[in-house]
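As a warm-up, study this chain.
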Amino acid sequence: MPDVRLASPQGRWILFTTVLGSSMALLDSTVVNVALPRIGRALDADLAALQWTVNAYMVTLAGLILLGGALGDRFGRRKVFVVGVLWFAAASLLCGLAPDAGVLIAARALQGVGGALLTPGSLALIQASFHPDDRGRAVGLWSGFGGIGAAVGPFVGGWLVDGPGWRWVFLLNVPLALLCAPVALRHVPESAGGKAEGRFDVLGAALGAVALALVTYALIEAGEGSWVVAVCAVAGLAAAVAFVLVEKRRPDPMMPLGIFASRQFSAVNVVTLCVYAAFGGFFFLAALQLQVVVGWSALAAGTALLPTTALMLLLSARSGELGDRIGPRVPLTAGPLLCAAGMLLMLRVGPGASYAADVLPALLVLGLGMVTLVAPLTATVLASVDTARAGLASGINNAAARAAGLVAVAALPLLTGMGPEAYRVPDAFDDAFRRAMALCAGVLVVGSVLAFATVRRPAPDCCRPECRTHGSVAVPPLEAGSRLEAGRERGSRAR
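Now compare it with the structure written out below.
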């Protein structure tokens, strides 16, 4: 049984290093959007290159995050976490030194690999290190401090872009990693899941990442209409089919398809796809709209987006408590509708827009919608499966949200008629942004209807989320998979 107490010096060091490591990945997923216009001008990149700057990271992160958790369980969570931190730092250094868009995109893909190694290990280390009596409070502090990091991300990104330059958005990760890794090696105890049998599902992870990459490429380059795009689209769908077949036949798959036998779990993941596709598209385009069309600086645009994250950070725990009392159906129906209303309010944001009259009301409504739905969404995912699969269910849901966001970033410019140079032409970008907001609102309405039709109140003794405070607007919270052991420990103490 782990015995580190939160009040001890070692406990504080463990909390510090896990928060620092997870914040690196959280910050990177939010600050890069603010830097996109400056990156495009500095590297003479078209809109497709900016899409890939976001999506190259998401492809490898979404495709490999389940494998990253399995590697930690097998070889040691601290070891894999430290490798992920150092890998992430090396890729960040390459991003910051990139001489052109091609190198930047390749480095971003490598960054995603590092993120897939460190992200699952951060919370798992807390679960495995702290005494059961302190574990809940440690998880709460971890998620709260992580939320603060996510909240200040766009502000820090804007300040760096307008000050030292966009390259420091990536270079900042290097000193953070050089601080995080030695502390982890010195103060964090090693732990593993104890499962040494079986093979890693490397083939499944590779097929999943390849399918996402090829489909994303086809969507981004579809305007070219070349035979290469058609071949990539077909190959991407074929890779997706092969992924399903491999996962179905392997004795130890990365994503056991049997988990989707739960109708509730399947339905909630479809709702997740709808919701986070809209969120991914919104935050990619909103940062560009505020700079390209409204004419604000990167700092002003990043600061303007803070209300959504701040509301999540302040109210997500209370939203989870409300969902526990009234059930998830109402929050998961009303939340997407509020978000859709917020995105429709963004139609007022154009040339000469006022922050107080135009931008802030839209972001407040959107933030309240996110607060309403995110905590009950996570709770419903965990409640849909047995306790032993809680960590797996959370990982699948987290990966689904990331995949939905990257597909939205790839597809929205195509669906709204954005040309390669659209972000350089304010009037053209403004027209496309308005069409995109209407599409995102429509997808959210679909998610709301689906939630109303399929979500039911979970059983009283189901799994409950441990991450009650959440500040990320990009993905739902990731829950660790040691619940079965934790439940046994609590039961033993009660007896």
